[in-house]
Write a structure and sequence with these properties.
The protein has 117 residues and is mainly α. The chain is built from 4 helices and no strands.
Length: 117
Amino acid sequence: MLIYLATFSRFYDTAPLLFYAGLGLFQTYVAGLLNIASTAQISFPYLYWEPVVYAALLIADATRFIASDSTLIALYSLLILIVFIKYALFMYGMITQLTKYLGIRLLRVKDKTTKKN
């Protein structure tokens, strides 16, 4: 639905990656949360503010409510950045919890005091 709405944007023909990257990141983030919620048998928060803001931006774009191209690109980019940060924090939390539970270190630095023979 939202990718269909994106076709009404004035930037869709010249920068479709902006829309696919944002939606892809959000979908990956929410799919990870759904996986964790279903595995842990906890309730899944199904209402997120990001798609609502994204749809509002698309409507403002299509109706030329926001006339400045640079302002719209900045708003789209800010939304993508927010989703990216949330996804990165989610992945960081998952990786650190998993490696701690398994008792392994994600990165291991070789000791410099060991001499080669």
